[in-house]
Amino acid sequence: MRNLFGITMGDPCGIGPEIILKAFKAKPELLKDCIVFGSYELLSFYNEKYEMGFSIHRIKGIEDFKEGSINVLDPNPIDLKDIPIGQVSAAGGKCAFLYVKAAIDYALERKISSVVTAPLNKEALHKAGYRYAGHTEIFAEFAQGASYAMLLWSDRLKVIHASTHVSLKEACESVSKQRTIEVIRLAHGTLQKTGYQRPRIAVAGLNPHAGENGLFGDEEIREIIPGIKACQAEGIHVTGPVPPDTVFLRAVKGEFDIVVAQYHDQGHIPVKLLAFDSGVNITVGLDLVRTSVDHGTAFDIAGKMIAREDSMLKAIEIGKMLSKNSEIQEE
Question: Which residues in 271-287 are b (16+ Cβ under 10 Å) and which e?
């Protein structure tokens, strides 16, 4: 089997097709290893409209792979007139889901080594009848893993989340010793796969000042600290809980390699502030490698070919690194 990886187009009404083409333009060598799961018609349209100069080749399986071309597997062929570029639509949501599902199937069958996802839109996904909160939950549904988490990766700051797409109330209620242990272990294992021999992990507190010894909440005392101590007993280099208003600054200054955030915005805000165009979203803990751009569908600029491909290129790079090291560990 050739060492192929997959890219899903995401919502075709967004900027996914553009950043895929621009990534290939920046690094043409990626073509020899990649299958795009997406709209053949739309990629061909953008390729011609913006004179990108690629050969777009439709395939039904890896046996049809053609060297030197953009190889596209389209599980849901749709006419251009039915793709409302720049708008939230059920058509876009359906396409996005089916592209992802096809790529997951290929990864589980070991036809591709990893999956890189362009952005989808949650509202469009729901309009199409797919009641998922996002990519992470789709992958968790169809792939296997004892536990999983969302990890945001950038050169300056790396953050893994104890919870993501739930209400803030649910996020607070879900804090537990077991989840703390799971996420610390996932952070430790993932960073080791990328070359960190003994990752330095910080766990953010949930409450202001990490609870201030119970003055502002006792979740740290009841759940988070026991989880941290259990991981320390396993030999993991983990510190905390650290007040959330300082932990990210300390990480950026080099004191920690990764931070465990307790909920979605606690972790997303600092990463997007520092690396909005170059951050990478990784789903860790599953039996396949999935990385993603860390930005949305950007319907407001879709179709203009002005979206930046930095995050897509970084997601491909990290995906290749993780899949390579996962294979080494399996051997």
Answer: bbeebeebbbbbbbbbe
Q: Quote the CA–CA distance of 292 and 283 in Å, as a whole number.
A: 9
Q: What is the tens place of the pLDDT at every residue in 20-35?
A: 999 999 999 999 999 9
Supply the pTM of this predicted model: 0.87
pLDDT at 329: 45
User: What average pLDDT does the segment 199-205 reach?
Assistant: 98
Phi, psi of 239 (to 5 degrees): -125, 145
What tokens does 169 get? 């109330």
For residues 137 and 140, give the distance between their C-alpha atoms in angstroms, rounded to a whole number. 5
- Architecture per CATH, domain 1-145+286-331, reads as 3-Layer(aba) Sandwich (3.40)
- Distance, CA of 240 to CA of 52 (rounded, Å): 50
With DSSP H G I counted as helix, E B as strand and the rest as coil, what are the percentages for the chain, rounded to 5? 45, 15, 40
Strand partners, 85: none
Query: For position 327, what pLDDT does the model report?
Result: 52
DSSP category for residue 31: G
User: Going by CATH, does the domain composed of 147-278 fall within 3.40.30.10?
Assistant: no
Whether 1-145+286-331 and 147-278 share one fold: the answer is yes
Q: How far is CA 215 from CA 123, 155, 212, 218, in A?
A: 39, 35, 5, 8
Count of beta carbons in the 10 Å neighbourhood of residue 29: 8
Distance CA 140, CA 193 (A): 20
Domain locations in the chain?
Answer: 1-145+286-331, 147-278
The H-or-E segment that residue 153 falls in is: strand 149-153
| pLDDT at position 139 over 90 | yes
Residue 240: in which H helix or E strand, if any?
Answer: strand 238-242
pLDDT at residue number 2: 58
Helix ranges restricted to H, the chain: 16-26, 40-49, 90-108, 122-127, 135-142, 168-173, 177-193, 219, 225-233, 247-252, 264-275, 310-330
At 245-275, the pLDDT tens digits run 999 999 999 999 999 999 999 999 999 999 8
